Amino acid sequence: MKDNVRYRNLLQQLKVLQNEIGELELRNVADDWEQLEHEAVRAEKMYQNLIAKRGPVFGEIKSKDEELRKYLTEWDTDYKDAAVRYRQALVNLTSTKAVTDDVAKLHKAVDQAIMKYHSMKMEEINAIASDLWQKTYQGTDIDTIMIRSDDDEESTVARNSYKYRVVMVKQDTEMDMRGRCSAGQKVLACIIIRLALAECFGVNCGIIALDEPTTNLDQDNIQALAKALHGIIEARKHQANFQLIIITHDEEFLKHVHCNDFTEHYYRVSRDDRQKSVIERQPITDIMAS
């Protein structure tokens, strides 16, 4: 039965195939030939077009090959050690950046140190100046003097720049001394500030020179200044490099300083008969005894 069924199916398939063969035999073979001929012509034209385009493409490829050989030659000559040089340049760049960062940190640290040092020295100078003023000035209208430092906003300097002014203090009230003090007060303030600066910054160069320090000072302030100078000399006389030079016409001032406690001679400048300067070394006892 299976074979019978299979036989019948094959007969059915054979019948279908015979029908298809008949249909193909009935088709117009000439139409297929024309279509194929048309396609062949079109393919030939496309082939010829591709042949025509192949020449420029080959020329461009040849040009690119020449350019590539040129680049390869340049690489072998100019960029042969590019990797090594790049590494060295990177190391230099990194090192320079690290040094720059360290310099910036150092610059900032130095700025902070300078500001701190400035603040510390200003406090020290004002303390010395205040002490000297209170010991020297005999008036009651000024309790003390101070140096004030204000930031200079107009300065273009990287570090802080300051404008300094001298103020006088009376019962915690500060006023600028410029234009408000007498000539004697101005002279005394100048001397005291110079002494304070010498005390702060003249540790290794302890030379103080005073030229006519008693100008415009009254007798009480002259005596007070002499007493203050005597105290400074007494405190620093054991310092090996300390020296006080006083140029003055006021011999009474020298007596108040008690110069004979510290020296045995002084130099007197005078004029001879021909009006020429003469410098004579004389014993200090001549002044103290006169």
The helix tally amounts to 7
Low-confidence stretches: none
Note the overall shape: rod-shaped
Binned, the helix content reads 55-70%
The number of strands is 7
Terminal Cα separation, in Å? 170 Å
Strand content: 15-25%
Placed side by side, the strands forming the largest sheet appear as: 1-2-3
Helix-strand pattern, N to C?
Answer: HHHEEEHEHEHEEH
Oligomer designation: single chain
| Broad structural category | alpha+beta
- Rg result: 55 Å
How would you characterize the largest beta sheet? 3 strands, antiparallel
Mean pLDDT: 84
Observed structural traits:
290 residues, alpha+beta, Rossmann fold, two-stranded parallel ribbon, 7 strands, 62% helix, 16% strand
Describe this protein's structure.
Among the domains are: 89-181, no CATH class; 202-290, Rossmann fold, CATH 3.40.50.300. It is built from seven helices and seven strands, in the order H-H-H-E-E-E-H-E-H-E-H-E-E-H. The protein has 290 residues and is an alpha+beta fold. The longest helix has 55 residues, at 82-136. It has a three-stranded antiparallel sheet with strand order 1-2-3. A two-stranded parallel ribbon has the order 4-5. It has a two-stranded antiparallel sheet with strand order 6-7. The mean pLDDT is 84. The relative contact order is 0.05. Its main location: nucleus. It catalyses: ATP + H2O = ADP + phosphate + H(+).
What is this structure's SSE topology?
Blueprint: H1 2-26, H2 29-78, H3 82-136, E1 144-151, E2 162-170, E3 173-176, H4 183-201, E4 207-211, H5 219-236, E5 243-247, H6 251-257, E6 265-271, E7 277-283, H7 285-289
